[in-house]
Backbone:
């Protein structure tokens, strides 16, 4: 059993013992476990986002021939922490004429939705964080929540009473909804091959021979893989597809009017989304938590480290793309989706179906 | 849109009528940076105004100084020394490259590619260091003086410039690969922002915008000044008349400027840089119109003297002012995203527009 | 390109000591009948041999049109500016012969509150410069499509580029900023808020 699983089991046993001694119904142990689990996830997401922002800055600086943050802490490590603290202190401004409820709810919804995705990620073979829920429809759950993200964006954009926010939100909605379809089809291809919607099962199937049994090496999954990467990049608004927040056109897009913690929520959610895409990609194509050197892991590293490491590779790739490419225009973006990606997704679906039939 | 908008290149306000994401009409609203530079000229004497000439187009300070100094010297009947002329041309061309580099990066930012700007600034830094060595300033040089220069070139200036000339074409090839040849960038700029030669004529468009419409008009060739007749360089033109054509013209111009710089370094004569000028400049009454080619187009300086020691009337023909007038014509049926990219390709400088 | 550019250079040699340049003979032929119509052609002019024509407000449009339809037309309006010459104002049109370096200046003298017909019909480029000259010198371009302020704020008092202009702090341009005083009213949101 993994360290996290051990700790969780130990804590649970401890709590159950105490609660029994204090004559508190055992249900509260579950409730407490949920709360603690939720807080842990939130903290982890924040931590991941902070680390990612730092890494993004450093990588961007490296790509652009700059130095990047280096003043706060060793190698500027505390820069993002300080930035987060600064955002916490900032005045929360709701523009005159904004819809206060929507304006406040927008980032909350967006952040919530991004967080939900983490529930179904199989971090380790024994202990998925959402074990109690036991989602055998992980892929479906992910898709469902990624489409909900649009609502958060729309709420923020509409509630801000700002032309740029509105334009950004409308762009974002159009883009996310359009790119969902090829993404779904790409995922269906993987699901078809795996025969299961559960991310755990998909991971299990790739662990036998380590590196060699990854979905990455299956030629019939290459097309879905590329499609997934493109559409996922569009879903999380990184550069060739960052039109909802295109700085040079829409100031900051749907979060133009946000400041302080609300802005931080959008910001964190975006980065946690970024990482989520890395995680999903790692699970689907790079063998998830399994070691690339075969099963069981000859290095005895914690399994979640493998997953996080693989996800980081994907995230770094997306960052590299982000700092290289210019931005598409709205109509070109739509044309790309409907005229190229969608047909390609259907073709790959057919190919995978045929391969799946005869394999 | 604007005046506080990240990509209006200063404080330009565009009054847009949009239909969804389609732009129906654009009306530029200028004047936010107006600083009455023409009126100031009437209060100052001819030498004192020189630093103000930098402020018109702050990315092309040398070019502005060149224009103003040329007007004053023509008025006074002073002919600068050969060395001074070569150095002035050299400085103007260096500044042209520096200005185009800012343009290049800005257009990349406007289309969403952030990295190119940093790459451009890396090379611009080399130029700015050279400017700093020569003039002590990095942006507003105040290096040209009536009758000469502030000082001769510093000792290792020419070596530094040679090193720049050596690496720069390679760097342009790198930008070319990174930005110009990128498919997304091409789809953002090709057949976008069409400006026909006829419209360009009607709106008095000059500079790379005009050459992008296929008209090989360059003041350096049409009304040569200083040592330009002796220099070998091409005036690049593209006939596509779109944003990409303007972009390519500028990219080509940077390389042509390097060619000019290399010739300048080879031919730079020795001797004095300053001629004797009277302590108080009192030109005879008269007027003059001097023109130079700035990175943005034809830069003119109309100067009237009444015999006293300050200009009676000074008027600058600033290229951005006229190029911006044609901007709404280029934006017919554009998308909001194009608006920004077209503005970037017109390369206006608000200090140059509002004066 | 280069032979195109060499050609116009010929008549305007840079002179060491610029003096008053008489109008070239070819010009007498071109504008001779214009003179007969009452336009005056100034013998003085810009240094470096740029010819100039001086005319009156009511004849300037005819002259400009005439210059545009010459065999070698001066069809590019490269610049426009105004000047305050003390007792009268002046509008200058800098014309170019297409895309050559050949320059010509047309000057219009007018009274301090005079009117000039707009040249926007001939060259759209005249739009902004005319607006600028209007606000800076206080003359009127009749028939201008949008005679609003260009560089100066609306409601500016006086014409800054006139020689007799005095910056007056008493009448400094101030306009109450509705956003600063009551943003909600400025945005028309009072009703929503009172609900």
Residues:
């Amino acid at each position: 059993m993994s360290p996290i699983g051990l700790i969780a089991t130990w804590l649970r046993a401890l709590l159950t013992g105490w609660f029994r001694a204090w004559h508190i119904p055992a249900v509260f142990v579950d409730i407490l476990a949920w709360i603690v689990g939720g807080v842990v996830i939130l903290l982890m997401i924040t931590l991941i986002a902070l680390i990612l922002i730092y890494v993004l800055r450093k990588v961007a600086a490296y790509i652009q021939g700059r130095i990047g943050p280096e003043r706060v802490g060793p190698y500027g490590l505390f820069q993002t922490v300080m930035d987060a603290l600064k955002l916490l202190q900032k005045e929360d401004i709701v523009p005159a004429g904004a819809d206060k409820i929507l304006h406040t709810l927008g980032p909350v919804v967006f952040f919530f939705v991004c967080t939900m995705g983490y529930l179904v990620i199989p971090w380790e073979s024994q202990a998925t964080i959402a074990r109690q829920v036991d989602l055998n429809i992980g892929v479906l759950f992910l898709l469902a929540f990624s489409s909900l993200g649009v609502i958060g964006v729309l709420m923020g954009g509409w509630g801000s009473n700002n032309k740029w926010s509105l334009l950004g939100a409308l762009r974002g909605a159009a883009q996310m909804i359009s790119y969902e379809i090829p993404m779904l089809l790409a995922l269906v291809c993987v699901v078809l091959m795996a025969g299961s919607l559960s991310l755990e099962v998909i991971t299990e199937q790739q662990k036998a021979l380590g590196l060699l049994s990854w979905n990455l090496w299956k030629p019939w999954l290459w097309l879905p893989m590329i499609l997934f990467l493109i559409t996922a990049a569009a879903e999380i608004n990184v550069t060739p597809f960052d039109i909802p927040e295109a700085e040079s056109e829409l100031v900051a897009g749907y979060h133009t009017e946000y400041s302080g913690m609300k802005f931080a929520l959008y910001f964190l959610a975006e980065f946690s989304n970024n990482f989520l895409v890395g995680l999903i990609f790692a699970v689907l194509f790079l063998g998830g938590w399994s070691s690339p050197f075969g099963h069981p892991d000859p290095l005895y590293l914690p399994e979640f480290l493998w997953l996080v490491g693989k996800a980081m590779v994907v995230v770094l790739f997306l960052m590299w793309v982000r700092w290289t490419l210019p931005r598409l225009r709205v109509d070109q973006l739509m044309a790309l989706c409907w005229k190229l990606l969608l047909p390609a997704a259907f073709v790959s679906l057919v190919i995978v179906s045929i391969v799946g039939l005869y394999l | 849109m604007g005046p506080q908008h990240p990509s209006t290149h200063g404080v330009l306000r565009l009054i847009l009528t949009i239909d969804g994401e389609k732009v129906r009409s654009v009306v530029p609203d200028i004047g936010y940076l107006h600083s009455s530079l023409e009126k100031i000229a009437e209060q100052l004497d001819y030498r004192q105004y020189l630093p103000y000439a930098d402020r018109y187009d702050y990315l092309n300070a040398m070019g502005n100084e060149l224009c103003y100094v040329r007007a004053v010297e023509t008025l006074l009947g002073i002919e600068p020394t050969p060395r001074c002329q070569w150095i002035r041309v050299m400085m103007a061309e260096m500044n042209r490259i520096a200005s185009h580099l800012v343009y290049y990066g800005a257009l990349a930012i406007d289309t969403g590619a952030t990295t190119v700007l940093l790459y451009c600034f890396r090379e611009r830094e080399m130029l700015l260091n050279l400017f700093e060595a020569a003039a002590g300033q990095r942006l507003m040089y105040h290096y040209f003086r009536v009758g000469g220069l502030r000082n001769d070139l510093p000792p290792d200036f020419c070596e530094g410039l040679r090193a720049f000339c050596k690496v720069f074409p390679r760097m342009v090839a790198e930008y070319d690969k990174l930005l110009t040849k990128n498919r997304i960038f091409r789809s953002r700029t090709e057949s976008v922002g069409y400006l026909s030669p006829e419209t360009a004529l009607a709106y008095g468009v000059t500079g790379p915008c005009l050459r992008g419409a296929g008209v090989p008009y360059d003041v350096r060739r049409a009304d040569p000044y200083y040592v330009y007749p002796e220099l070998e360089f091409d005036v690049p033109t593209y006939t596509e008349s779109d944003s990409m054509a303007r972009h390519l013209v500028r990219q080509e111009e940077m390389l042509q400027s390097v060619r000019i710089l290399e010739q300048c370094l080879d031919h730079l004569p020795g001797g004095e840089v300053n001629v004797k000028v009277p302590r108080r400049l009192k030109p005879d009454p008269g007027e003059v119109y001097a023109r130079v080619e700035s990175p943005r187009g034809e830069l003119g300086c109309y100067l009237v003297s009444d015999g006293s020691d300050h200009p009676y009337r000074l008027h600058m023909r600033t290229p951005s002012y006229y190029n911006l007038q044609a901007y709404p014509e280029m934006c017919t049926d554009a998308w909001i995203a194009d608006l920004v990219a077209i503005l970037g390709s017109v390369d206006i400088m608000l200090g140059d527009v509002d004066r | 390109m280069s032979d195109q550019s060499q050609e116009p250079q010929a008549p305007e040699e840079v002179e060491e000591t610029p003096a008053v340049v008489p109008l070239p003979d070819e010009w007498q032929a071109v504008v001779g009948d214009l003179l007969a119509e009452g336009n005056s052609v100034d013998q003085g002019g810009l240094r470096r041999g740029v010819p100039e024509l001086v005319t009156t407000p009511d004849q300037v449009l005819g002259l400009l049109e005439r210059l545009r339809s010459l065999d070698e037309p001066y069809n590019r309006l490269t610049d426009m500016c105004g000047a305050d010459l003390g007792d009268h104002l002046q509008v200058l049109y800098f014309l170019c012969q297409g895309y050559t370096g050949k320059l010509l200046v047309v000057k219009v003298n007018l009274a301090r509150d005079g009117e000039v017909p707009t040249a926007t019909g001939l060259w759209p480029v005249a739009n902004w410069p005319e607006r600028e000259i209007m606000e800076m010198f206080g003359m009127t371009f009749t028939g201008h499509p949008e005679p609003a302020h260009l560089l100066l704020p609306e409601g500016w008092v006086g014409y800054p580029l006139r020689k007799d202009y005095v910056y007056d702090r008493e009448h400094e341009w101030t306009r109450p900023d509705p956003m600063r005083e009551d943003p909600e009213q400025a945005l028309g949101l009072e009703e929503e808020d009172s609900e």
